[in-house]
Amino acid sequence: MSQLSNAVAKLTVFSVVMITVTSVDSIRNLPGAALLGSHVISYFILAGFCFFIPTALVCAEMSTTYAEQGGVYLWGKKTLGPNFGFLTVWFQYAENIVYYPPLISFIVATGTYPFFPDLASNNIFMLVMINIIFWSLTIVNIKGLRLSSLITNVFGTIGLIFPILLIISLGIYWIFTNPESSHISLSHVSDWLPDLTQTGIGASFTAVVLSLTGIEITTAYASEVKDPQKTYPKALLISTVVILFSLTACSLSISAVVSDAHSSLSEGIVLAFKTFLADLHLGFMLPVIALAIVFGSLASLNNWIIAPTKSLHVAAKDRFMPIKLTRQNKNAAPVPLLLLQGAIVSLLSMVFIFVPNVNEGMWLLNILMTQLYMVMYIFVFICFLVSRYKHQDTIRPFKVPGGKFGMCLVSVLGIGSSIFTIIISYDIPKGIDSGNAASMLSIGFVIFSLPAFVAIAYRLKQLKTT
Predict the structure, then answer these.
(1) Cα torsion angle, 421, 198, 355, 256, sign
(2) Count of helix runs (H) and strand runs (E) in the chain
(3) Which pLDDT score is estimated for 334?
C-alpha cells in the first residue's frame, strides 16, 4: 500500500476549498470570456454544471481509487493498459506545452504595457521574451533552485486573490457610478441568457471552459481529507460557487469597461485596470498592479513547468521513450525531458512570426490548448467508466454519488461537454482569418497528437526485441 494511502487525513473542508480555488481560479483567460458580455453569466453556470462539477467528481474518485504516483497515466494504465494511459498523459503534456506561450505572452504584455505599450503587441519582442522567461525557469528547475513554498504562496496571493478582489470591487463601483459608460447591461432577462447569434461565440466559450480546467491536479489531495465521502462534496460545492462567482464577476468587470473593438487576450486585464484607475485618478497604481499580476503568474508558471513532465517521466519508464530521456539529476529533475520541453516551446513560440499580431497568436494557441485538453478529459471519463465495471470490488475512499445513475450522468455530461467544446471552438472570432485559423488548428492538433502514437509504436517494438 502506498504512503499516500496510509497518510493521516488532515485536510478539512476549508483546506480543500483553498487548494481547489487557488489551483483553478485564474484571471488569464478572462479577457476572452469577457467578449460574451453580460451573457457570460449563463455560460459560466452552464460550463460549471456540465463540465467542471462532473470532472471534479470523477477525478476525485479516480485519484483516491488509484493513489499511487502517476496521475492520469496511472488511471489509463490500470483500466485500459499502458498504451491508453500514455495517450491520456500525452494529451495532458501536449496541452501544457501549448499553454506556456500564451501564459508568458500574458505575463509579458501585462508587465510591459504600463511602461512600453507598443512592445506589448510587438511579435518579435514577444517571441524573444517567451524564450528568455521559459528557459530561465527551466534552468531554475533543473538546478533545483525553485521558489520556496512560502514565497510561491505569497506571490500567488498577490498575483491572484488581490487582483481578483480588486477588479470585482472596481467593476461594481464602475457599474453604479458610470452606468452610461458601461459596455454591458444587466437590466433585461435576455442579458442573462445565452446569445447564440454572437460572432465568435465558440472561441469565447472555449475561454470559459478553459478557465475551469485543471481540477485533476487538485484532486490528488482527495485521499488526505477527513471523511472524503462527505468532506469532498461539501468542499467541491463551496469551491464551485466561489470559482464561478469570482470568474463571472471578473469577466463582467472587464467587459463593462473594455469594448469588443479594443479587447485583447494579452492586454485585456491591464486595459480594464487602466480604465478603472483613470476614473479614480489613481493611474500611478497601474504599474504596481501589473507587476503584482506578473509575480503571481510567474509563480504559477514556475510550478507548472515540471508538473506535467513528472507525469510523463513515470510513463517513460514503461519504455515509451529511450532510456536516456528518463534520466534524472541529483535534484530528481528529469533533465532530458525538461530540455526537450523547452525546445518544443521554443519552436511553438515561432507562431508569433507567422500571425499578424500577438492577439491572434494567443487565440490560436488557446483554442489548440483547449482542444488537446478536452481529449484528455474524454479519456479520463472513459477510464472512469471502465474502472467502475472492471474493478467493481476495488475500495474507493471517495465515490461519485448517485450509484449507476450518477455514474452515467457525470460521464454523459463530461464527455458531451468536452466534445461540444472541441466542435464549437472552430467558431473563430471576428478579426482573425477564419480560413487560415481552422487549417492551422487542424494541422496543430495532428502534429501534437502524432508523438503519442510514435511513442506507442516505439514501445511495441522494444517489447518485441526483448
Answers:
(1) negative
(2) 20, 0
(3) 83
Tens of pLDDT along 290-319?
888 888 777 777 767 776 777 788 788 888
Domain ranges of the chain: 3-464
- CA atoms of 361 and 378, how far apart (whole Å): 26
Q: What is the pLDDT of residues 88-147, one digit of tens each?
A: 999 988 988 888 888 888 888 888 888 888 887 788 888 899 999 999 888 887 876 444
How far, rounded to the nearest angstrom, does the alpha carbon of residue 385 sit from its chain's CA centroid? Answer: 24
Contact present, 86 and 74 (Cβ < 8 Å): no
- pLDDT at site 4: 40
The dotted CATH code for 3-464 is 1.20.1740.10
CB atoms within 10 A of CB 81: 10
Distance CA 367, CA 123 (A): 19
Instruction: Tell me: pLDDT of 231 over 90.
Output: no
Predicted confidence (pLDDT) at residue 71 exceeds the cutoff of 60: yes
- Alpha-carbon torsion (145, 103, 276, 174), positive or negative: negative
Q: Which residues of 158-188 are buried (b: 16+ CB within 10 A; e: fewer)?
A: bbbeebbebbbebbeebbeeeeeebbbeeee
| Residue from 344, 347, 306, 321 nearest 94 by CA | 344
C-alpha 201/C-alpha 191 separation (Å) is: 15
In the numeric block, which cell numbers belong to residue 54?
Answer: 462532473
Phi, psi of 457 (to 5 degrees): -65, -40
Which of these, 338, 316, 323, 298, lies nearest to 144 by C-alpha position?
Answer: 338
Cβ pair 61, 221 in contact under 8 A? no
Task: Give residue for cell 466534445.
Answer: 419
pLDDT for position 410 = 96
- 372: pLDDT strictly greater than 90: yes
Residues 129 and 142: their CA atoms lie apart, in Å, by: 20
What mean pLDDT is predicted for residues 203-226? 74
